[in-house]
């Protein structure tokens, strides 16, 4: 199906665009009262993720309400460990919790390399339902977590300030860490390829806990597996977003992907110099900007657009939008990107 708005895809591929495309990480969710209404009608987060019709509904809400240039499928990176046999619970106001962690060879035997149709079919169906409902209005982004980030949760058992169990495993049993990373990578490749087949127009890999590793460990336990995933996705553009991995930007320039996401701690000019001109950059406004006045949001957004330049940029925040953000402030950010970049690019 021909896309009516293909700005995101063209910008990702480095083609000339009339204005900068804009979308937000975590746009499908917590800031919108319409999302909360759907969520409250169900038993909780997991039922929403696992019910294709509802997942599609909340995926499309930000396209209708915020007027973003792309939808991102409503799901979670932790569906992958669940599909592999390591189940999680989403605890209200605490986040994910894994009742059984993976810390020994014995634990590893409980896992499987997941089959996407059999174990993640609800996500693929949500993509198909969303695509039909969008009817080509905007592209649909599919995603998965990077293998290191998934390992961090499976070993730690929950979110953490230090991830000391996960990081400790890299020192005490690197062989086990690589075995687990291998299984996660094989699952993720099959899963993302299935997302593309189901209709995803672009894929994003989230390495949320990249920044807690040393550069040497990152190059050993994360980068090679991300590279494998990039090499396996050939039909659509791929974005790699590794939060906190400023030390790896030069390495990212060698990845077989089209877009590198920047968090708000990454300086734009330095990042461009390290990544080079052959990739599109995405980001990187501080989500906390959206707590400020409308005037400040406008001026800071224009400043960001000037730093990136009119081409090879996808406007976004440097992390997911925070749940207590006023949707009107989000609309101000999006509208400013569209209006200012439209003038500059014309």
From TrEMBL:
One of the record's GO cellular component terms: cytosol
GO molecular function per UniProt: uroporphyrinogen decarboxylase activity
Enzyme Commission code(s) on record: 4.1.1.37
Pathway in which this enzyme or protein is active: Porphyrin-containing compound metabolism; protoporphyrin-IX biosynthesis; coproporphyrinogen-III from 5-aminolevulinate: step 4/4
Site (Transition state stabilizer): 76
GO biological process: protoporphyrinogen IX biosynthetic process
Residues annotated as binding substrate: 26-30, 76, 153, 208, 319
InterPro entries according to UniProt: UROD/MetE-like_sf, Uroporphyrinogen_deCO2ase_HemE, Uroporphyrinogen_deCOase
Pfam families: URO-D
Protein function: Catalyzes the decarboxylation of four acetate groups of uroporphyrinogen-III to yield coproporphyrinogen-III.
Complex formation: Homodimer.
Name recorded for this polypeptide: Uroporphyrinogen decarboxylase
Lineage: Bacteria, Pseudomonadati, Bacteroidota, Cytophagia, Cytophagales
